[in-house]
């Protein structure tokens, strides 16, 4: 459903994303994990058609990401989403329904469905300017789903959410994936990636260091034990011997020889 082929994005002399290839299938929940400045948001913006790759191809549902056909399939929730302060949550949802040209009756049913799913009935008729961060996020997620997207793209979805709101959002990702939506999320929260993702991609300095299920990443990196956090920190933290070993390679994922080299470098820390 989402396909990146050899994608590079530069800003002047800065390479934000380098030769990135990956796919996210329908029904798959893919978590992009990386430290600050790794290239996650840049990648997500290319998938949403908001940035053009310097090199390579990004396809959504087989369409180039910057086309109307691709956009119709996508729901995008950015890390700092926008709501109109002077509209109520319900008015905002109606506005989005109209923007997508959804039949008003179908739209009204959908809004009621989403108000129930996101438990918004207590506050959805108050002005958005009075909402807490968690309340705003629920309206934003609801607005992203009014057109029944096939691809859900979310940048840092759980930042600042309390446990109840985080649970609602996590359940949403799982139910969307189960119903066949391709979900791509970026996160710093390793526990979230570990809990939710079918596939994890670890990115640092614009390069994909490892990709797969947690078990596959362990195999690729020849590290059998420990939580994802340990793997992640070893790959991207400190003096970065692991990342350095990998960056010596031209491939975007690990070969067996690289895995052994990287594991030795971790062992020597
Ligand atoms: N418009 C831009 N102009 C110049 N450099 C940029 C631009 N956008 C991103 N960058 C740089 O590209 C790199 C990757 O940034 P990006 O925002 O994609 O990282 P990220 O993984 O999302 O980080 P964070 O977790 O901090 O949000 C960073 O070094 C950033 O400074």
UniProtKB/TrEMBL annotation:
It comes from the Bacteria. GO terms for molecular function: ATP binding; ATP hydrolysis activity. Residues 2-230 form the ABC transporter domain. The keyword ATP-binding applies. CDD domains: ABC_DR_subfamily_A. InterPro entries: AAA+_ATPase, ABC_transporter-like_ATP-bd, ABC_transporter-like_CS, ABC_Transporter_VariousFunc, P-loop_NTPase. The keyword Transport applies. Keywords: ATP-binding, Nucleotide-binding, Transport. PANTHER family: ABC TRANSPORTER ATP-BINDING PROTEIN ALBC-RELATED (PTHR42939:SF1). This is ABC transporter related protein. It comes from Isosphaera pallida (strain ATCC 43644 / DSM 9630 / IS1B).
